[in-house]
Structure prediction request, 137 residues.
Amino acid sequence: MAAADDRVPAPRAPESPRRARIVLAEVSRRDDRADRTRTELAQQTRVGEALVRGLVRAQLALALRLSLVVAIGLGGLPWLFAIAPAVGRVTVLGVKLPWLLLGVVSFPFLIGVGWAYVRLAERNEQDFTDLVQRPER
Prediction:
């Protein structure tokens, strides 16, 4: 009787090696550009300062535009009621229109403007990140 150790394993089919294409010039060029930009940001060079200044300017412009929307939207209501007093005397479900607009409708309006600000500010930041990480072409 033959022992289990005496068995010879069946020969395997030879595996062909997989070929991988490695292009070092392209990889290093992309990494060098991204690393250089990150270094300029971290070391606060003139280029890094210009990039950050552009982001801050974009965020400030967004905040000012949406502040103007709120100022016109909510600040314009008292002007409307002063110019057209008949509109101020309208009642809806037993509540005067000025109270309804300023006391109830203003909150969803402000929430909508806040939601829009967050979305647009995140888009500005994503554009900045894409600019910093964009490979040189």
In short: The first strand starts at residue 91 and ends at 92. Residues 43 and 49 are 9 Å apart (CA to CA). The mean pLDDT is 78. The longest helix spans residues 46-83.
